[in-house]
Specification:
- With 208 residues, this protein is of the alpha/beta class.
- It has one domain (6-204): Rossmann fold (3-Layer(aba) Sandwich).
- It contains 9 helices and 7 strands; from the N terminus they run ααααβαβαββαβααββ.
- The chain has helices at 6-9, 16-26, 30-36, 41-52, 69-76, 89-98, 139-146, 159-164, 166-176, and strands at 59-63, 81-86, 104-106, 121-127, 147-158, 181-191, 196-204.
- Strands 3-2-1-4-5-7-6 form a 7-stranded mixed β-sheet, sandwiched between helices.
- Strand 2, helix 6 (89-98) and strand 3 form a beta-alpha-beta unit.
- Bound molecules: S-adenosylmethionine.
- S-adenosylmethionine binds next to helix 2 and helix 5.
């Protein structure tokens, strides 16, 4: 049987169950597909985090960690204290095998609260999770509950969902309310072999 084209299927999922089932199947070949595509967002997001959080021992939650490519980029950038969570058990099993995450747990970011105390993390990375049928912009409210004042949120997403506009609208609403500050928006490569570009959004969370 020919391989499924998960890059295409990822745009057609429209329920949490479909998304979870797709990633449970994709888990087996996700790293191969993304490596072949020369996936750039994990490294770009890790570098963006470094410009805000220099302490390499800071505790980071990699939300929607998948198989761990985004955590691996954090580790390659020198960070040593990384937790992860994801919807798909198949993806989480792969992430666990890397042995780079401390706590690793299942979650649905569209159904808060997460099993995490208030103000627990210095930083949150969200790489490739905001998309059609994936994680919705309202999840940022939960990020703000679990991050420490002075913390950083780094979001990497592709052009298609950035241009859809709901995430940037949510972030701008929260910025107007004084709950966060968008420090930078960098456009660049997402998956170059698929001719897909994307954005890295760096966000500072002030004390309230
Ligand atoms: C494109 S992958 C990105 C994985 C990893 N961050 C990376 O950069 O390789 C998207 C991930 O988001 C997860 N995801 C999708 N919807 C989710 C939800 N509602 N809650 C938590 N994770 C979700 C998927 O299971 C998948 O692992």
């Amino acid at each position: 049987m020919p391989d499924e084209n998960f890059f295409e299927i990822a745009y057609s999922v429209d329920s949490t169950d479909e998304t979870r089932a797709m990633y449970d199947r994709w888990a087996k070949v996700y790293d191969r597909d993304l490596t072949d595509g020369e996936y750039q967002q994990p490294a770009r997001c890790a570098e963006a985090l470094k410009t805000q959080i220099g302490d390499l021992g800071s505790n980071i939650l990699d939300v929607g960690c998948g198989t761990g490519l985004s955590g691996l980029a954090l580790q390659n950038a020198g960070y040593t204290n990384i937790d992860g969570c994801d919807l798909s058990e198949g993806m989480l099993e792969k992430a666990a095998s890397l042995e780079i995450y401390g706590r690793l747990f299942a979650c649905d970011l569209n159904q808060p609260p997460l099993d995490v105390e208030d103000q627990s993390y210095d930083a949150i990375t969200a790489v490739g999770i905001f998309s059609f049928g994936h994680v919705m912009p309202e999840a940022v409210d939960e990020f703000l509950r679990i991050i420490k004042p002075g913390g950083a949120i780094i979001i990497g997403l592709n052009d298609h969902f950035y241009e859809e506009g709901s995430l940037t609208a949510k972030l701008e609403e929260l910025e107007c309310a004084g709950k966060l500050k968008i420090v930078s928006r960098e456009h660049g490569e997402h998956i170059p072999q698929n001719d897909l570009k994307g954005w890295v959004l760096s966000i500072f969370v002030p004390s309230q």
